[in-house]
Amino acid sequence: MQQIPVIVISSSREGTGKTTLALNLAAAMWCDGYDVGLLTNENNAVRNFMQKRRELSKQYNIKMPFPILLEETNEFPQSANEKKVIIADIAATDNQQCVALFGAAHTLITVAATRDDLNWPMNHPYANVIWQAKKQLASKNAGFLNWIVVPDQLTAASDDFSSTLGEMAKRHGFRVAPSLHFRSAFQHINDGYCAADMALFPEVLPMTMADVYARREILTLTDFLWR
Fold it and tell me: What is the pTM of this model?
């Protein structure tokens, strides 16, 4: 049986836009034909997204794809679709408990909104989690940690730390993904849909130019993840 790839989304603190990214990434994946499992703890934003999405589907009588909430089913259900992916949205308070998941994931994404989100002293808890995940991989001779940092401008007013990302990447050993800029379109999750959904249902979800840009950014990120 082919192993389902897991994309873990994390950060050193709360409020960096992890859940917003997780849901937008999930939408991009199911628009590309994937069954998407979403692994997340109790999360008001996810619950609101699912409820609003159900209401939207009923209101317009449209069949919208939904992520499979794995905390409810505990396992990915069987289906004929061979394209499957699991997206894990990890709360900052749970990083230490998820070291094994970090090390076993297809890709580990760290969301950073400011320079301080990557400015870790040697004893920083998040830096220690990454170090433990790397040691786990090394002990199993399983290669390197496919670690990606996404500069997320959803919660940052500027990209004043972007010039130092290259230096930090060399120091910590991650790849820098294309930045996500401040686009109101990413916040459509509050209404139960994402920018990637809008191309599927243009009759009820008309796109603005901001939505087009947001969709392009997410699709560029998905290409980067699999590269």
Answer: 0.91
